[in-house]
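Exercise 7b. Backbone tokens:
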């Protein structure tokens, strides 16, 4: 899990950040990205692609990452902006915001996926990076937990949708709630499953 970071270090980059996002697929809520700089040789036991971890383990690792990381940055793009610029551009923008929120700024970026982000720093897009890089995996955990906690708060405002359970993803229960109650202010109105119940339909 450290091979990509070591390669970047051999190329002369001293500080490497991993970047990942959570929330491209849901019908509601923001897309959230995290950028994480891990200390060289730090304890990464258990850190893995967030999708492979239970919620309880993600929460424990989230706390561990915040305690031990050199820096953590968060980037959030809301549903209104997602509808305006599309979800891919919103995800890339949230990643760039997360990088800008890092202190110190890194010298090199490892980005999960196949697209580079709108940021002037040297970077590499890494397919399936959350399974190949400790830094990206740490970012995937932070992004996922941050977004899940945001959706739990949104549930308190819009309990009829069940955001605490499905986190905005297109489950059968969520789609039925949209049909019954219409759209909330955090629904992505250009997405299939939502658009049919709005002026976009």
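Sequence design result:
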């Amino acid at each position: 899990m450290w091979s990509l970071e070591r390669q970047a270090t051999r190329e002369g980059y001293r500080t490497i950040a991993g970047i990942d996002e959570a929330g491209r697929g849901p019908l509601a809520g923001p897309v959230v990205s995290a950028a994480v700089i891990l200390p060289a040789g730090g304890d990464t036991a258990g850190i893995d692609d967030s999708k492979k971890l239970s919620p309880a383990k993600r929460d424990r690792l989230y706390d561990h990452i915040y305690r031990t990381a050199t820096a953590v940055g968060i980037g959030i793009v809301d549903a209104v902006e997602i509808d305006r610029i599309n979800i891919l551009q919103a995800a890339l923008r949230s990643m760039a915001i997360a990088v800008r929120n890092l202190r110190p700024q890194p010298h090199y970026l490892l980005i999960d996926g196949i697209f580079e982000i709108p940021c002037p720093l040297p970077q590499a897009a890494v397919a399936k990076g959350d399974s190949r890089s400790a830094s990206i995996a740490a970012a995937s955990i932070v992004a996922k937990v941050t977004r899940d906690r945001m959706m739990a708060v949104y549930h308190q405002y819009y309990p009829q949708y069940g955001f605490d359970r499905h986190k905005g993803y297109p489950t059968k229960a969520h789609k039925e709630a949209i049909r019954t109650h219409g759209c909330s202010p955090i629904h992505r109105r250009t997405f299939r499953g939502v658009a049919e119940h709005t002026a976009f339909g």
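Instructor comment: Residues 5 and 143 are 20 Å apart (CA to CA). The chain is about 40% helix and 15% strand.
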